[in-house]
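Our preliminary data section would be incomplete without showing what the modeling component actually yields. Below, a chain of 157 amino acids is followed by its predicted structure, encoded as C-alpha cells that our downstream tools consume directly.
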Amino acid sequence: MARFGQAFKDRAVARLLPPESAAIDVVSREIGVSVDTLERWRAQALAQPTQQRTWTAAARFDAVLTTAAMDEATKSAWCREHGVYPQELAAWRQSATQALAEPAEARATPQQTKHDKHRIKERELRRKDKALAETAALLVLSRKLEAVFNKKGEADE
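Predicted structure:
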C-alpha cells in the first residue's frame, strides 16, 4: 500500500476544491491515485476548518485576479465565501506582484553572455601574460646574478 506525504495530499485536494475544482477522475489519472482515495482525502479536507485548506499557486493567482477589480465589501464577501482572509489575499497579491516585478533586463542575453565570456578570457590572458613576464624577468635576473658571482669567484682564485 502506497503512503503519500501530507504535502502531496494537500496539493491533490487543493486541485479538487474551489476555485480550481478539477474533475476527480482527471486528477486521479494525472497523479496516479485512485478516485476512492481522492474522495476520502477530499472528505477529510472538507471536515477541517476552511483556514487549514491549502490553495495551489494557480488558484491563488486566479483569486488575486478575480478580486482585483472588486470593492472592499464585495471582496470581503468573496473571501468569506471561499474561506480566505483578506490579509491572505493581500499577501498573495504582494507575492504575485513581486514575482512579476523582476525586469527582463536582469537576465543576460546571449550576446551579453558571449561578451562577458570574451572579457573574462581577455582578463585571464592579461593576468597570465603578466605572470609569464614576471617569471621571465626573475629567470634573467637569476642568470645575471649567477654570472656576476661566477666571475668574482674566478677572479678570487
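The chain has a mean pLDDT of 83. Residues 113-156 form one domain. Preliminary results of this kind motivate Aim 1 of the renewal.
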